[in-house]
Design brief:
With 467 residues, the protein is α/β, with parallel strands linked by helices. It contains 14 helices and 19 strands. The longest helix has 18 residues. The protein starts with a strand and ends in a 19-residue tail after the last strand.
Length: 467
């Protein structure tokens, strides 16, 4: 039976335009938009009418970098696909792209099937997968082709974490060559892990065990060097490259130089690098452990370069790298040895609000907010225009956003399954009011009305920025 929803009276904001318009939704998709007060809008009728007066009507966020239930450092990320996607919905994100993990010595298919099983029937919003390549060899290179055909069109490699996820330059080159042929996109964790491990060992030998040393050993120059090396390998392979969680001014400069040459090189940063710093890592009484992630938080002066990169499009996407570990019992594994602190921060619920605050603070425009959080990640990972915009034919993933509502970010009120907030006490203006996923209400007037299993697996096309 056909169902129609009408959203009246709001300011529709997409990456391309802002329009006072009514939005008609039919059978889970955007059916039409009409400027407010026009005959077309006045003639519409619907089973349900949502009043968006004085509110923004924006596309649901696309978070292209999450890690639900990720095994890491002898423990697991504390959000399941059920709790993590529910928290995403609370924060106005209606699609996540998570990472399936290949175990060394095992097939890509085995890892992918394990992640299908983790997520199936659990998600409150739609989801897709990237594939982490931990073991590049002839067999897994052939598997890459098969995965691209079934909608897993991006592959993450690590220049960090020797003995866990690390790939050497030869393996990286081979994977890039394969992606150049099959249309896949290589995502790179760009840090010189071999050199970092030397610095970690030396720091611990000196008795430098506190969380702040995590930031000191993972040098800015070792992120910049790895970013440069990844770009050159991609040039040799003739492949596109997407560098994840860029945190440092010098790494942004490498991306900008590559893009100035016309190369298909893209960069992502995360809210933690835009709003937090090494000051947080240095918090006393082991509190700094809450902020241990990789790439690490940088000195505050790097933030200006990241914001500038977002404005100039040298950085295109803001994702969260949501990978939460509870302070009690998980982050505490690294007491006395910072290298044993599980790497990761919670943030899937906070991204849209923090970026709206950035609009108010003058860092970005409203349309750029939607571009870096919705439209570009959807295009980058082959989900557009099904996701990332409000246009006829798109999935009705729609957020009614109250731009004037004040809120204080806190673990006491968030919905992520983690016992602290990385932004505890931060006051922001703007808040999600109602969220629709494929036309179905999952948040209504600040009440969760969704359900586990509503979210669908969404196969992806290849990167839409490549000719």
């Amino acid at each position: 039976m056909s169902t129609r929803t009408l959203i009246r009276g709001g300011l529709v904001i997409t990456a391309a335009e802002e329009l006072h318009a009514d939005v008609l939704i039919e059978d889970g998709r955007i059916a039409a938009l009409a400027a407010r007060g026009t005959q077309a809008a006045a003639a519409w009728s619907a089973d349900r009418v949502i009043d968006a007066s004085d509110k923004y009507v924006i596309p649901g966020g696309v978070d292209a970098h999450t890690h639900m239930e990720l095994p890491f450092g002898g423990t697991f990320a504390s959000d399941s696909f059920e709790t993590g996607t529910r928290a995403a919905a609370w924060g106005g994100t209606t699609t996540i792209v998570d990472f399936a993990v290949q175990t060394v010595g095992r097939a890509l298919r085995e890892g992918l099937d394990a992640w299908y099983a983790k997520a199936d029937g659990k998600c409150a919003v739609d989801y897709a997968f990237h594939m982490i390549l931990s073991d590049v060899n002839d067999r897994t290179l052939k598997e890459m082709d098969l995965l691209v055909e079934e909608g897993i069109t991006s592959f993450k490699l690590f220049m960090a974490y020797p003995g866990v996820f690390y790939s050497d330059d030869g393996q990286i080159l081979r994977a890039m060559q394969r992606s150049a042929a099959n249309g896949g996109l290589i995502m790179m964790h760009a840090e010189n892990g071999i050199a970092i491990d030397v610095l970690v060992e030396q720091a611990l030998q000196r008795g430098e065990t506190d969380p702040r040393y995590h930031g000191e050993v993972r040098k800015v120059l070792l992120e910049a060097e790895a970013t440069h090396r990844a770009i050159q390998l991609a040039r040799v392979a003739g492949a596109p490259l997407y560098v994840v969680h860029v945190s440092a001014e010098e790494a942004v400069a490498e991306l900008a130089a590559a893009r100035d040459k016309g190369l298909d090189v893209f960069g992502e940063t995360c809210p933690q690098y835009l709003f937090l710093s090494t000051d947080n890592l240095a918090e006393p009484d082991f509190e700094g452990a809450k902020y241990v992630c990789s790439t690490p938080l940088r000195p505050r002066e790097h933030q200006a370069a990241l914001w500038r990169g977002l404005r100039t499009n040298d950085l295109q996407v803001v994702s969260t790298d949501h990978c939460p570990f509870c302070f009690t019992g998980q982050k505490e594994l690294g007491r006395g040895d910072f290298s044993k602190i599980p790497n990761g921060l919670p943030g899937v619920e906070n991204r849209m609000d923090l970026l709206h605050q950035a609009v108010l603070d003058g860092h970005i425009t409203r349309r750029r907010w939607i571009e870096i959080a919705c439209a570009t990640p959807a295009r980058m990972f082959g989900l557009y225009p099904q996701k990332g915009t409000i246009a006829p034919g798109a999935d009705a993933d729609v957020v009614i956003y109250d731009p004037g509502a004040p809120q204080t970010i806190s673990a006491a009120t968030h919905h992520m399954n983690v016992d602290y907030s990385a932004y505890e006490g931060k006051q922001v203006t703007g808040r999600v009011e109602t969220v629709l996923s494929r036309g179905e209400t999952v948040i209504e007037q600040r009440e969760f009305t969704g359900r586990a299993g509503h979210g669908r697996y969404t196969p992806r096309a290849t990167c839409q920025y490549l000719s």
